[in-house]
Write a structure and sequence with these properties.
alpha/beta, Rossmann fold, three-stranded mixed β-sheet, 9 strands, elongated
Length: about 300
């Protein structure tokens, strides 16, 4: 949670399951919500982020109920970096709220759940919901994304990558034990065991899966792996010859749209970096949302 100049940033980050409001992880979030009606100086704006599925939960219903009773107007979004040209599939729920008499630029979207970034950039008479994209529109969205190659720091795909340059660009210290590039490659034993469950991407791929806080610790369901050798045929049978590797922390940060000058303190270990990045927000999505939230109608 962040409170600044009457602005609340709430990162609820609750897992959507059957426990709903009974989940202990929802307690602090619910407690903050229940305090809002009693604040002498309530925030003028709210920004809430959560996983997809939150919008159908009891906790969400409580959020909307309390905001409505405390004179807030809301607009809700489900957006992914893919919709902003970033080849990264990370859909998230966002709720923007303003306390009256403030209002949104596009008031037509008040109290609606929007699955398109169009209201952020275009006049309010555009289509609100892209949840049911046609196959043709879905293909256009996919093609509009940049290739994975544009987000890599290790762009060479052979064995002649300079390890010293890898250390310098990642900012890893000896504490992270970065004495060779081998730490990023997936052991053949894991490829053999979990290859069928791995999501593998290539230099020209236009999407990769969401990186979780367990990326680098586990290979199944934690994020995509990069093929550093182009196979004759892109299939699971040829995974061993593709020399799969993990995306480096800098590359994960790039896919989160972090600025070029972003770097971790040297004492943060490699696994900690991946864990922190896995819990991060996509700047490509959050930045236009915040700009929209802070913009008042002319």
């Amino acid at each position: 949670m962040l409170l600044m100049h009457g602005f609340f940033l709430l990162l609820a980050n609750l897992t959507h399951d059957k426990k709903d409001t009974g989940d202990a992880r929802a307690f602090s979030f619910l407690q903050i919500l229940e305090l809002i009606p009693f604040l002498l100086q309530p925030p003028s704006m709210l920004f809430v982020e959560n996983v997809v599925g939150f919008e159908t939960s009891d906790t969400h219903a409580k959020l909307i109920e309390i905001l409505g009773k405390t004179n807030f107007i809301t607009q809700e979004f489900i957006l992914s970096p893919l919709q902003f040209g970033i080849p990264y599939s990370r859909p998230r729920y966002f709720c923007l709220a303003k306390r009256k008499p403030s209002s949104f630029v596009n008031e037509v979207w008040n109290s609606q759940l929007i699955q398109s970034p169009r209201p952020l950039f275009e006049p309010f008479d555009t289509v609100a919901n892209d949840g049911d994209l046609s196959q043709e529109d879905g293909l256009k969205l996919f093609q509009s994304c940049q290739p994975i190659e544009n987000f890599l720091e290790l762009k060479n795909t052979g064995n002649d990558i300079d390890v010293e340059s890898v250390t310098s660009v990642t900012g890893l210290s000896n504490d992270v034990e970065c004495d060779s590039l081998d730490q990023y490659y997936v052991p053949s034993s894991l490829v053999e065991r979990w290859g069928s469950a791995m999501d593998v991407v290539y230099l020209d791929s236009k999407r990769c899966c969401c990186f979780t806080k367990s990326y680098y610790r586990y290979v199944k369901g934690t994020g995509s792996l990069l093929a550093t050798v182009e196979p004759k045929k892109r299939d699971k049978a040829s995974l061993k010859e593709q020399r799969l590797r993990y995306f480096t922390p800098r590359e994960v940060a790039n896919l989160h749209s972090f600025p070029e000058d972003f770097e971790f303190p040297e004492h943060i270990s490699l696994r900690q970096r991946y864990a922190l990045l896995g819990n991060s927000l996509s700047i490509a999505v959050v930045a236009p949302l915040l700009n929209y939230l802070f913009t008042e109608p002319v």
